[in-house]
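Most newcomers find our protein records easier to grasp once they have seen one. A learned vocabulary of local backbone shapes supplies the integers on the structure line. Here is such a record, shown just as it appears in the course material:
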Amino acid sequence: MKICVISGASPNSNDAVGDFAFRLTDELSKENQVSFIGPSESVPREASFPVYNVGKRWGPKDCVSTYRFLKREQPEVILVHFVPHLYGWLGTKPFFALLLFTLKRKGYPVVTILHEFSSPPGSSIKTTVLSWLHRTLLRLIVRTSKKLIVTTPFALALFHKNFPSRKSDFKYIPISSAITISPAEFEKQASLRSQLRLSPDSLVISLFGSTIGTAFDHLHKVLQWMVNKISNSSFLFIGKHGESLKLKFLGEEAIFSRIRTTGPVSNETASHWLSISDLYLVFYPDGASTRRTSLMTGLEHGLPTISNFGSLTDPVVASSGAIHLFKNFSDEEFSVLQTLYQDPAFRKQAGKTARLLWEKNFSWPIIVEKYQEVLKESATIE
């Protein structure tokens, strides 16, 4: 099958959608003829498939260039990764929507992955207007797409309600990990610990440095508990925004002094840092859900994972027992964290359970098979 993937973000550009889009393209290329269209920044030179670079604004020039490339390549199906803010104009995306409409008129089947579909109304006139524009243009995006993929059961139910005549065209496929697992060897692990000035007995608690909104409050509570209860704990903030997250704890020396940051890292290096981690934290405003690549990364690496309940927490995730989910941050919930700290055997088993959950539900062979099915259903030039 000849597939062209369009993404508004490239890998290694501090955007999980870009990382996932590129990883999915790579996985699809193992059985298909696949090309990738996206911004030029940070695209690996060693990609195993053709990469076509466009600008980040997705204005008339970028959209015309994309159309010309597609016309030359003649893909059987086009796979679009959609998040409003990735396609310019604060997510109002008029030219990108026009591009998809043109592709539909020319008979190209489009499958759109709706990672996100609009910003919330917010409290200001600006955010309210943007939200209205996002939702209005979303209807055009839906009309131009032969099939649409959503990444949570919540989103599937929402679109079934709002587009009842298109129910059969919406498919639920969860996200998988965007980082290829690359564990560091024992000697490398020792070197990484030394680099961060960690003692051999330090319990390393890692997270990606992009915690925002109410999720920061969750993180704050857990780190406060840890500095009081776990004398040998160290906190590893991975990635570009680790330093800015660390600065939020500047007035709390007990936490601040235990934080280590990696700075910007490649996916391979991020995997190395995770390989020296004992616990993994991922907190989200809407809870642990199947649209979060960072959650899947912890599961794939077999790390004891700590997260939180929320409006988008998936029932499969919640009932699996593979993740310790905080709901009320009660003493009972913290007691499980105490056991994870004190009992290495329990911690090891928690990591195994997390890995098994990923293998059974979110591993790449399972995810790719689902994508293949949707793409094959759609891959007919009209």
Observations:
- The chain has a mean pLDDT of 90.
- The longest strand covers residues 33-39.
- The radius of gyration is 21 Å.
- Residues 2-176+364-378 form a domain with the Rossmann fold fold (CATH 3.40.50.2000).
